């Protein structure tokens, strides 16, 4: 059986990574999505299983036991991907920020990095505010996006500008399809 592909979807908050990944999963089978751990509080209306929500102590214990493929501290909270355990015949998808993406690339140079960009700063801000994040968090995320986009553009195997969901989904699907075909 071939090794599963590792597909990393990264990009600044408000780029629409989650929506794009949901679309990919709706259309493509055989993809196992990692469920991250975080110490961030659950947002109002956010699904209970969006993350494994834990306290800092539990997160640090899992770091100490080598339980993460990658982890980072992002705007004051820990986020990390547990060691993947995909079902048979499934590729692995991680939706993570760029520092984590770099760690995965170091451990698995063959991992594929897709970087998703928001169509504009205004639209990104509108999406972030729409999620209910407080204004000062949104401002921090927008500032962080400047650096992330510069580095992301350099590291990525594919950059997708998420201005049109159907087109962006097609680009992601074509990329995954080509990677799957070339490993056969
Ligand atoms: P949010 O707080 O908006 O859910 O996530 C903040 C950022 O952390 C997003 O860019 C998201 O993709 C990223 N993120 C989510 N889970 C992980 C993870 O397990 N590891 C890393 N490195 N980043 C993550």
The level-1 CATH class of the domain at 6-34 and 89-182: Alpha Beta
The end-to-end distance, rounded to whole angstroms, is: 10 Å
Mean pLDDT: 95
Rg, rounded, reads 16 Å
The count of DSSP E runs of length 2 or more, i.e. the number of strands, is: 9
SSE string: EHEEEHEEEHEHHEH
The SS-based structural class is alpha/beta
User: Would you identify the CATH H-level superfamily of the domain at 6-34 and 89-182?
Assistant: P-loop containing nucleotide triphosphate hydrolases
Overall shape: it is globular
Counted by DSSP, the helix tally is 6
Question: For the report, how would you describe the main beta sheet?
Answer: 5 strands, parallel
CATH architecture of the domain at 6-34 and 89-182: 3-Layer(aba) Sandwich
Beta-strand percentage range: 15-25%
In terms of topology, how is this protein built?
Layout lengths: L5 E5 L6 H11 L3 E3 L3 E2 L13 E2 L2 H9 L3 E7 L2 E6 L8 E5 L2 H10 L4 E6 L3 H10 L4 H21 L2 E4 L3 H19 L1
Parallel strand pairs: 1-7, 1-8, 2-7, 3-4, 8-9
Antiparallel strand pairs: 3-6, 5-6
Helix pairs in contact: 1-6, 4-5
This protein binds guanosine-5'-monophosphate.
